[in-house]
Amino acid sequence: MVTYGIIGAGWRADFYARIALLCPESFAACGIFIRNPQKRKEFSEKYNLPIFDNLDDLLKTDFDFIVSCVNKESINDTAQMLADKGIPVLTETPVTRDDLSGKIQVAEQFHFMPRNQAYKAIIDSGILGKVRQVQLSCCHDYHAASLIRFFLDIKDEKPHKTEIRLNDELNRYNSRAGLITPTAVTSGQKIAVLDFGEKSAVYDFNYEQYFSDIRASRTVIRGTNGEIVNDTVTYLKDGLPHSFSLKRDCFGIGENLDGFSLRNITGNGDILYANPFAGARLSDEEIAIATCLVKMKEYVNSGEEFYSVKDAYTDYSMFS
Fold first, then answer.
1. SS3 237
2. Which of 210, 274, 228, 225 is nearest to 248 (CA)?
3. Which stretches within 153-268 are classed as H helix?
4. In a domain, 301, yes or no
5. Cis omega before residue 276 (within 30°)?
6. Averaged over 52-74, what is the pLDDT?
7. What is the pLDDT, as a whole number, of residue 171?
8. Domain end: 107, 124, 150, which one?
9. What phi and psi values does residue 25 have, to the nearest 5 degrees?
10. What is the pLDDT of residue 258?
11. Do residues 119 and 219 share a domain?
């Protein structure tokens, strides 16, 4: 069992409270500290968990670590304040300083998402040869930097960066709060070429992609012997190109009555990713965040880092 307290009441805090609700056999939220009275009321109506108006009261509860979901301006100071008290902290992104110290890890979840884990399994299998280029249009700035480093096996190398920004006019019809009346907006599109020497990346992202199906995301991973383009893998074998597609195997499809959740991702006859929370009704994003929670518990017990302050700052500084 992973037990954690939560600080904050924003969009991200909702994920951590919801994961405990959907996976009670694996996760427990011992409470949440919320300053804003209206937010406390909203959370109390959605979740059956202790809600505190005083941080000290939360810190008196029994937990493995604290999850900090405060606003971006307070992320660094809150993490350091908790660490100074000897409290293990899983802090949300972005981490904009590299001098934080103590038991701090960062909830950078994108590389734990099921399809990205499947991509990495394909890379590690060797069928693509030496992977030299990534083209990402699926997440913003420091999250994209994290994925670029994950796929290309880049540590803290600094790339030569060329960047342009374009205006993109489109109809916004969806948001964090759900569907809205379509409204014309002009959104900023950032395109950057990152040259690491032997390896390179192309970043192309518009924030509208997070909630819009009329601005599709895409991932391209290119190696000397093949490439991945979204769900299609093509590679040379015995001098001829072979292709296969990634397939999501889910409960709850058709006549299956075992709930609705991802079981695994397969391709070319192999299981490329197995969902450790199969059976729970979690989105890919929630699976990734839940994985961060498990990794954080392992870090508390063993000291083995899974996403350090240095890692997160490297991501942040790549596009700052």
1. strand
2. 274
3. none
4. no
5. no
6. 97
7. 95
8. 107
9. -80, -15
10. 84
11. yes
CA dihedral 283, 286, 288, 293 (to 10 degrees): -150
Does 269 lie in the same domain as 122? yes
pLDDT at 257: 79
Query: Which residue carries 């209206």 as its tokens?
Result: 38
Instruction: Specify the pairing of strand 131-137 against strand 65-68.
Output: unpaired
C-alpha dihedral, 124 to 129 to 133 to 137, nearest 10°? -50
**Which of 107, 114, 101 is CA-nearest to residue 68?**
107
DSSP three-state, residue 112: helix
What number is the average pLDDT over the span 114-122? Answer: 98
Given a cut of 90, whether residue 177 has pLDDT beyond it is no
Same domain, 157 and 80: no
Domain boundary among 75, 107, 139: 107
- Dist CA 95 CA 70 (whole Å): 12
Angle between helices 284-302 and 114-125 (to 10 degrees): 70
Tens digit of each residue's pLDDT (9 = 90 or more) over 232-278: 999 999 999 999 999 999 999 888 878 899 999 999 999 999 999 99
Closest CA relative to residue 160, chosen from 194, 131, 185, 120: 194
**Which stretches does DSSP call E strand in the chain?**
2-7, 27-33, 51-52, 65-68, 89-91, 104-106, 131-137, 160-175, 178-195, 200-206, 218-223, 226-229, 232-237, 240-245, 247-251, 261-267, 270-274
Residues 58 and 203 in one domain: no
The owner of tokens 């383009």 is 229
Angstrom distance (rounded) from CA 197 to CA 157: 10
- Arithmetic mean of pLDDT, 55-72: 97
pTM above 0.85, yes or no: yes
Rounded to whole angstroms, the Cα distance separating 215 from 231 reads 17
Helical ranges in 113-255 per DSSP H: 114-125, 141-152
